[in-house]
Write a structure and sequence with these properties.
The complex is a heterodimer of chains A (474) and B (525). Chain A is mostly helical. Helices cover 61% and strands 4% of the residues of chain A. Chain A has helices spanning 2-31, 39-52, 75-87, 94-119, 121-132, 135-141, 147-163, 167-181, 189-200, 204-234, 244-257, 259-269, 276-287, 302-311, 322-335, 364-377, 389-394, 403-411, 418-425, 436-439, 448-457, and strands at residues 384-386, 431-435, 458-464, 467-472. In chain A, strand 3 and strand 4 form a beta hairpin. Chain A starts with a helix and ends with a strand. Chain B is elongated. In chain B, strand 6 (475-488) and strand 7 form a beta hairpin. In chain B, strands 1, 2, 3, 4, 5, 6, 7, 8 and 9 form a 9-stranded mixed β-sheet that branches. In chain B, helix 4 (77-105) packs parallel to helix 7, helix 4 (77-105) runs parallel beside helix 16 and helix 7 (133-148) packs antiparallel against helix 8. Classes of the chains: A mainly alpha (474), B alpha+beta (525). Chains A and B meet through helix 1, helix 11, helix 12 and helix 15 of A and helix 13, helix 14, helix 16 and helix 17 of B.
Chain lengths: 474, 525
């Protein structure tokens, strides 16, 4: 039996090392890719650049434009700033991507140390694998986003709550929890989880005091620095509505690939040993309801995936056979296999799954597309509209219109679209870059009225990869 | 959970599965293959000789065995009878797996694996179709279970023979499972002695006896070898399995993951024989998926019973390890594993067969003579088809001389006095000569796909003195046009009325401006 367990451990290590090699290669390729990998990258890099230039992170938006929106709280930008000063010469997306990736790797390290302390090295390796190679993590890992940094702060606060029991620990975890909130308010669960932990350790009040102190200080600083603009960006411009359909779609999509991990969460939730950890898990599960917000993606499940991986630490105490836990983890890792959708034939010889979904790892074709778009936009006068604002930054243009956010606001009748339609009618934009999906009115980046107006006043001048470059109709 | 309560849960589980399947049997849309298989049985029942009177590339043991049932009547109802037979095989397959897993692993793991098996959309949908895969999977599953119930070294002769018989039936029902069965052959030859293997092979050969007998009586061996063996080996049309692999993986991820670990776990948790026995047919099926030129959904079917058995094994250890506390874990597993599959199955309930049944009824109404019908899918499976090929899909089209096919088809259509045509998507993909002929000699009935002999006459032919126009078939024609009066053979006819016309030349003349004149046969003489 011991020999068999050893073989199983060797298999686990082999799986981990192989997957890690692929994962690190993926991170490396993404880190140095000079063009945007996600819409969010252009938006966030634009605000990081504004901050580096000493401009406001939250300028007041008026009816005359520019129509730009900063959807995130300032902490991520502030933490990225030193990286920007140090590394921006190697590519405008690299500094913040580096912070995101470092945060992710540090998060994995924290998970490893947490689980190792409680359940040993093999389970720690398994829980890191369950976290790191999850499709959710892989999805967020390659690109610039605040989620991994927020998660790192969450895990740091949890680690401090796990490992220490003195007052400074409570103060520090209060600081980390409030810091993570101001990276992304989604990371609110940890505040309750740490609260429950410190209450068990009789330091609840100290933690509470520390959390609210730092929370108030951050809020005060933000209000003093950006005042009205901050509230406009954080509240008014963020009201893009809710979608139940999107929520369930995400839930089924993610849970189908995390069957065992999420079952572990449920198991830990209803475990008889009542612990502060369960309070945290309840809050993490409830936080999934944030993905009701229109535009939410898989990244809303990142914290749940991390929490599920840590749940492994609590399983051995509940089970008689360690090998069964190993096998369950291997089953979960099997579900992470990165299979890509491909065309399938139906009875009408049609295609059920579109064949256009490409690999996550950026390839040469994508690099060429970026190169061609940027060289086409560079000589054009301001203003220019691009579906992916990252291309504007790379070609030296200012961002005048962030399509996704303002289209959503227009749909909710919270922003008058007439102004931008008027500008399109007057052909004020020297060029408009749309993806093929948007041009065919199959995306959510532009409203149908905007696209109709564009088609009547602009004409396609070039097709570059999946993008259409439109110029004013003469 | 008490024994009686467990039995209750199992009863309701099977009741629910059977009800859902029955619902799908009655209402779910027809797959084109269903017409092909039932039509083949109909042809055999009506003494047509395969490969001489009509083309076929399937091994027709299933069709031969079921052909007597075709004499019970005619009409679309027969297809439902076929579907219910498939349903019986599906329920038997699931029940066999459940019984085995309950005996080996306990009621809870067996029930969960059975449920997860039902939640695989590919399995649920394909197993109830009127096709030979359903009995093939039943015999394949029972063969595996018989082997799993044996000791490693000893396979009794009767069991070896029976396993061979079932394995042989699997291949003779559906030749695409030859790779899966090869896995079983490998297991028997390596694990059990040569005597058992001989009996196994004997059983396999016995399963083909009815077919061999039929082929000998009809002297069809050379044609059979060419059409069914050589043709299928050198099949030209092919596509990648990637799409269906992705579909199978995303809709049955829970079952796949648990089975993967269950089979792997067998090597570590004292059931290595079971794992080895499961690995062989599983490997064979996976090889088949990659080697077969057209890996449609039904190619994946042998995977799922094997996966369900593997899944049950891991679950039994989960139940043992976690004890009472493991209930919530199992609830989570069932919930998250079922969701993606169930969400894919739900739309199957709303995609009904109504349109096909309406088309069948329309054809019956227009042509109650039971004469032949020309189409690409074989929708009117209980009537004769036109030409040598009953169904014409891309795969067959790639294997034949399309020019010859077009000439023969047009000739046959004329010889059979312009039978009813169903202008389905497969007909639209046929050679242009056939399409041109149909467009010139047929007219659609309303908005349907059904076409009847008819003409659309250009207005220039009607002007002044009019023209002689040939009517291909004698019968009542519905005649309609836009404009002033029209005379046929000197007699003025009413617009939108029915006129009897004999086959041959008739004089058509517009008395004034007449446009968009069309004639459609509504009743043959």
């Amino acid at each position: 039996m011991e020999r068999q367990e050893k073989i199983l451990k060797v298999i686990i290590w082999l799986v981990f090392l192989t997957a890690l090699a692929f994962f690190l290669r993926y991170l490396f390729v993404c880190l140095f890719f000079p063009y945007p990998l996600h819409y969010r990258e252009g938006v966030m890099t634009n605000w990081l650049r504004q901050l580096a230039k000493g401009k406001s992170l939250y300028p007041v938006i008026t009816f005359s434009g520019p129509f730009v929106h900063n959807p995130y709280l300032p902490n991520f930008y502030l933490l990225s700033l030193p990286f920007y000063y140090l590394f921006s010469r190697y590519g405008i997306f690299l500094p913040a991507r580096l912070l995101s990736m470092l945060s992710l790797l540090l998060s994995a390290g924290l998970i490893f140390s947490l689980v190792k302390k409680k359940a040993g090295t093999t389970l720690a390796i398994l829980s890191v694998s369950l976290f790191l190679f999850s499709p959710v993590t892989v999805y967020v890992a390659g690109s610039l986003q605040p989620d991994t940094t927020g998660l790192f702060l969450v895990l740091a606060a949890l680690t401090v709550s796990f490992l220490t029991s003195f007052k400074y620990g409570a103060i520090f975890s209060g600081f980390l929890a409030s810091l993570s909130f101001f990276v992304k308010p989604f990371f609110l669960a940890v505040a309750f989880g740490c609260g429950a932990a410190w209450r068990e350790k009789k330091c609840g009040l100290t933690y509470l005091f520390s959390f609210f102190l730092f929370f108030s200080l951050f809020l005060l600083a933000i209000t003093l620095c950006w005042g009205h603009g901050f509230w406009q960006h954080f509240w008014q411009l963020n009201m893009s509505g809710f979608s139940l359909r999107q929520f369930f779609h995400l839930l089924v999509q993610v849970s189908g690939r995390h069957v065992i991990l999420f079952s572990m969460v449920i198991f830990s939730l209803f475990s008889r040993k009542k612990q502060w950890w369960q309070s945290y898990l309840i809050c993490v599960v409830l936080a999934i309801f944030f993905s009701l917000k229109i535009g939410a993606e898989e990244n809303y499940y990142l914290e749940l995936v991390a929490a599920g991986s840590i749940c492994l630490a609590f399983l051995p105490g509940e089970t008689a056979q360690q090998q069964v836990v190993y096998l369950l983890c291997l089953a979960q890792l099997f579900l992470y296999l990165p299979l890509k959708p491909a065309a399938v034939f139906t009875r009408t010889y049609g295609q059920e799954v579109p064949a256009v979904v490409s690999s996550l790892t950026p390839d040469f074709a994508r690099r060429q597309v970026g190169q061609l778009i940027c060289s086409a936009l560079r000589p054009l006068p301001e203003p220019v509209i691009s579906e992916d604002v990252g291309y504007l930054l790379l070609s030296g243009h200012e961002v005048f219109f962030q399509p996704y956010q303002f289209t959503q606001l227009a749909r909710q009748a919270k922003w008058p679209e007439g102004i931008i339609l008027q500008m399109v009618r007057e052909k004020k934009f020297s060029a408009i870059v749309l993806s093929a999906e948007s041009y065919q009115e199959k995306s959510v980046f532009f409203s149908p009225s905007f696209l109709r107006k564009v088609k009547s006043c602009y004409v396609i001048s070039r097709i570059i990869g999946n993008y259409y470059l439109l110029e004013p109709l003469r | 959970m008490t024994r009686s309560r467990r039995a209750g849960v199992v009863f309701y589980l099977f009741l629910f599965i059977s009800l859902c399947w029955s619902w799908l049997v009655v209402l779910r849309y027809f797959d084109d293959d269903e017409f092909q298989h039932t039509h083949l049985s109909w042809l055999l029942a009506h003494n047509f000789t395969p490969l001489r009177d009509f083309f076929e590339h399937h091994v027709f043991l299933y069709h031969l065995l079921l052909s007597p049932l075709m004499r019970l009547g005619d009409g679309p109802g027969l297809l439902f009878l076929w579907r219910f037979l498939s349903l019986a095989c599906s329920v038997a397959t699931v029940w066999a797996i459940f019984r085995f897993c309950r005996r080996q692993d306990g009621t809870v793991p067996a029930s969960i694996s059975t449920w997860l098996l039902f939640c695989v959309p590919m399995f649920t949908a394909k197993m109830i179709e009127a096709r030979p895969e359903s009995p093939a999977i039943l015999s394949f599953t029972v063969a595996i279970l018989l082997l799993l119930e044996c000791d490693r070294q000893y396979l009794p002769r009767q069991k070896a023979f029976l396993t061979g018989l079932l394995s042989g039936l699997t291949v003779f029902f559906s030749a695409k499972y030859v790779y899966s069965v090869f896995g079983l052959v490998l297991v028997v030859s390596l694990f059990f002695g040569p005597v058992s293997f001989l009996f196994f092979v004997g059983g396999m050969l016995t399963s083909g006896l009815p077919l061999f007998f039929y082929l000998t009586v009809k002297n069809l061996f050379p044609e059979f070898i060419h059409a069914v063996v050589v043709n299928n080996i050198f099949w030209k049309h092919s596509f990648s399995p990637a799409g269906y692999i992705f579909e199978a993986f995303t809709t049955s991820s829970g079952l796949m993951g648990l089975a993967f670990s269950g089979i792997l776990g067998g090597f570590f948790l004292s059931r290595s024989e079971r794992s080895l026995l499961l690995l062989a047919p599983l490997g064979g099926t996976v090889a088949g998926i990659f080697l077969l030129p057209e890996p449609y959904r039904q190619t994946f079917l042998p995977l799922f019973p094997v996966l369900a058995i593997g899944c049950s094994f891991l679950l039994s250890h989960v139940v043992d390890s976690f004890g009472q506390a493991g209930k919530t874990f199992l609830v989570g597993l069932v919930l998250f594993s079922s969701l993606p599959g169930l969400l894919q199955i739900l739309p199957e309930f709303s995609r009904t067969n109504r349109k096909d049944l309406q088309t069948m009824a329309l054809v019956e109404k227009l042509d109650p003579s039971k004469g032949p019908v020309f189409d690409g899918r074989g929708l009117m499976f209980y009537r004769r088809h036109v030409g040598f090929h009953a169904c014409m899909h891309r795969g067959i089209m790639a294997m034949i001389d399309t020019e010859k096919f077009a000439t023969q088809t047009v000739r046959e259509l004329c010889r059979l006095h312009y039978p009813v045509v169903i202008f389905d998507y497969r007909v639209k993909e046929m050679p242009v000569e056939i399409i041109n002929f149909l467009n010139s000699a047929y007219q659609p009935i309303g908005e349907s796909e059904v076409y009847m002999p008819g003409l659309s006459i250009d207005r220039s032919l009607l002007a002044l003195e009019g023209s002689e126009i040939e009517i291909p078939v004698s019968g009542d024609y519905r005649i309609s046009w836009v404009g002033q009066e029209l005379a046929i053979d000197g007699k003025i006819v009413e617009n939108n009325s029915s006129v009897f016309l004999e086959a041959g030349l008739h004089h058509f003349q517009g008395l004034g401006f007449v446009d968009r004149l069309s004639l459609v046969l509504i009743r043959r003489k």
